[in-house]
Every structure is written in C-alpha cells, then in structure tokens.
Specification:
Elements: H1 3-33, E1 38-45, H2 57-63, E2 67-73, E3 78-84, H3 98-115, E4 119-125, E5 129-136, H4 139-151, H5 161-171, E6 177-182, H6 191-200, E7 202-209, H7 211-214, E8 221-225, E9 232-236, H8 240-263, E10 267-272, H9 277-289
Parallel strand pairs: 3-4, 3-6, 6-7, 7-10
Antiparallel strand pairs: 1-2, 4-5, 8-9
Length: about 290
C-alpha cells in the first residue's frame, strides 16, 4: 500500500468512525462505561442504609465505631483495544475483509473513548504480541492506531488469544475497559487468562466473522487453504456429509467460544462482515448501561 493509498483509507475510516461515535455511540458509551471506574476518596462514619461491605474495619477498630469507605467516580478511564492481526483476518468472501471491519470497529471505539476524555491504547497480536501502543489521549493517538491497523504487517500468521490476554494483564496494572476484537479462530485454550483478565479489568469481546467461515458452500471440488498454517487441501464441497461435518465443526466451535465467554462473565457480541456492526455494538452498550 502506497502512502497516498494509506492516507485515503485512514481518512475514510476517520470520517465514518468519528461520525458514528459522535452521532450514535456518544450517549451509550458514556452510560455503559462511565461510572464503572471508582476510586477511593475518604472515610466517614457509618450511616443507616450504608452498604456494610464498604465498612473500613481498620478505621472502625481504631475509633470503636463503624466507618465506611467513600468512593467517587474516576473522571478519566483507560480503554485498551486487543486486536487480532492473524492471517485469518484477511479472509472476506461475503462483505468486506474481517480485518477491514475490525479496523472500523476499533476506530469507532477509539473515537468514542476520546470524546469521553478517556485514554486509548492498543495491543496487536497473532500467536504473540506483535505491537503495544501505550494509552494516550487525543486525535493524534487515534490516527496512529488507525494507520497501524491498516498498514501493520505481523510477523506471524497464527493466533493465540491466551498470550495476548496474559500480556495485557501484566502490562496494564490499573483497572481499565478493554475490548478483545477477533474472529476467535484459535485452537488454544484461553479460558484461564480470560478469567484472570476479566477479574482485573472490565473486559468485553467482539467476534468478527465471515459467513463463509460458518457454512461451506456447495461449489464442487475446490482447494481450501488455511491462511494461518499455510496448508492446503482439496475438498469435495458437493458432498452433503462433508458440508454437514463442517457445519457441525463450526457450531461446536461457536458453542465453546460462547460458553467460555459466558462462564468468564465477559459480555460479547458477534458481527458478520456483511452486517451492520452499529446495531450490534449499540445492543452491547445498552445492555451494559442498564
């Protein structure tokens, strides 16, 4: 991609995602995430109706009467984008490429964070962390993230979500809001690092997939290529049993992903590349704002 082509793509995504964040997401983003970050302010004497879980037992013991901790809303949040840059993101048989939609979603979330005066950072990963962009404020930071999303060339093609989550948990000491954006085509077990990250941070998952990922078409004998391993295989797609076996594999894989996210208390949404991701993100935000 030439510099002019890159600038045009950056500008196109900037205009679209900034407009979405200003006109659609602003209120939902604020209600969904503002106020979830709380910081300790002071202690005061217990009053009838206070939550007993807020009692500061050390201060209570010193004064021989109950005191509670008082918290105030953090005015500044940190938002981290964990973005899957593996080779499977290049695929796009129905609609746009997965990676293009991932870039648009990430940019929209970044602009929403900036409008809320939040810091925004990113982790690009494959089967390892490829790039870490520390959280910062401002349009310059957003444009940096968008440029990297569009032009970054990862060194590895495969996926390991667990490695990205481990790096995120270790690198981000302060509680933050995080979005894990991936097609979740990953044969590794990421349940434990997902739970650890969710316990420490406010973590959400966004799956971007192509409908051809989910269903094998009946188009005769074709050669399939695994973008992440490089292996190829001839498959007779006219075989009903072959198509049914593929459909079963996809369904079971989706079930494992959904159960893993649900049991880890990670709110999630799935978006196909030919669908309007605006509706899906709005639903995610509204559910969290309740």
């Amino acid at each position: 991609m030439t510099s002019n082509e890159l600038l045009k793509k950056v500008r196109k995504i900037e205009i679209k995602s900034r407009g979405l964040s200003q006109n659609i997401f602003a209120g939902e983003y604020h209600s969904a995430f503002k106020g979830r970050g709380m910081m300790f302010s002071e202690v005061r004497e217990y009053q009838y109706g206070d939550d007993v879980r807020d009692i500061d037992w050390n201060v209570t013991a010193r004064h021989n009467r109950p005191y509670v901790k008082v918290y105030e809303e953090e005015r500044e949040l940190t938002v981290m984008l964990l973005v899957d840059m593996s080779a499977s993101g290049i695929f796009g048989a129905v609609g746009e490429e997965k990676r293009e939609m991932i870039a648009e979603i990430a940019a929209t979330l970044a602009f929403s964070a900036t409008q809320n005066n939040d810091k925004i950072g990113a982790i690009f990963f494959t089967d390892r962390v490829e790039k870490f962009i520390p959280p910062a404020k401002g349009k310059k930071q957003i444009l940096l993230i968008i440029r990297e999303l569009l032009d970054f060339t990862p060194s590895n093609p495969s996926t390991n979500i667990a490695e990205a989550l481990k790096h995120f948990t270790n690198a981000q000491k302060k509680r933050c809001t995080a979005f894990l954006i991936s097609d979740f085509i990953d044969g590794n077990d990421y349940r434990q690092p997902l739970q650890i990250a969710r316990n420490k941070h406010d973590l959400m998952a966004i799956q971007v997939y192509d409908k051809r990922d989910s269903k094998m078409p009946d188009i005769g004998l074709i050669r399939f290529a695994d973008l992440e391993t490089g292996t190829t295989k001839w498959v007779d797609t006219s075989s009903k049993s072959t198509r049914q076996a593929y459909d079963k594999w996809w369904y079971e894989r989706q079930q494992v992903m959904s159960e893993t996210l649900r049991s880890s208390r990670v709110d999630s949404v799935s978006v196909a590349t030919d669908e309007d991701y605006v509706k899906q993100l709005m639903a995610l935000f509204k559910n969290r704002g309740r």
